[in-house]
Design goal:
It contains 9 helices and 6 strands; from the N terminus they run βααβαββααβαβααα. The chain is an alpha/beta fold and 168 residues long. The chain is globular.
Length: 168
């Protein structure tokens, strides 16, 4: 299944220099042009963890594992039905996911609620970390260390501080 990733999930993994965990999770992954605009704005705002992100994005590099995608006219029309409290990146991800039957990675509560209403499969930062632990790419201790780093470096507002709570 194709999956869209929003800037929050991407930021969490970029902040701890572990985009590889996201890449190896459940790709292929797509970035909407709106999410890419958020990344560019983050770079301009001084978020150094976004430095070099282009080397992961197709078409900037031929083997990029993050692929840019734009909304169709129908998806743009659908976006008018969504709450103004959602960011442009979240709106674009939700509309594309709904129209194309794709999944969505987000940590944003309002976006997750809308995904639920539209029956869009979704997960987020914790889901990717848990998958990495279950697949043996991380130990529970390493996963918790990364989670703590994300909380500190990316100001990730995680609902848990110990991933083992979710593994049982």
């Amino acid at each position: 299944m194709n999956r869209l990733v929003n800037s929050t999930v991407l930021s969490n993994f970029a902040a701890v220099q572990r985009l590889d965990l996201l890449r190896d999770a459940v790709g292929p992954f797509f970035l909407t042009t709106e999410v890419y605009d958020e990344i560019l704005a983050g770079q301009l705002a001084g978020y150094v963890f976004y430095a070099g992100i282009e080397r992961h994005i197709a078409p900037f590099v031929p083997d990029g594992w993050l692929r840019l995608v734009a909304m169709t006219e129908a998806e743009i029309a659908l976006s008018a039905s969504l709450s103004a409290r959602l960011h442009r990146g979240e709106v674009s991800c939700l509309c594309i996911a709904q129209q194309r039957g794709w999944g969505f990675l987000t940590d944003e509560r309002l976006a997750r609620r809308q995904a639920e209403k539209w029956n869009i499969p979704f997960s987020g930062t914790l889901g990717v970390l848990l998958l990495a632990i279950q697949d043996g790419r991380l130990t529970v201790d390493d996963g918790n260390a990364l989670l703590h780093e994300m909380i500190v470096r990316a100001q990730y507002r995680s609902p848990v501080t110990d991933s083992s709570e979710l593994l049982s």
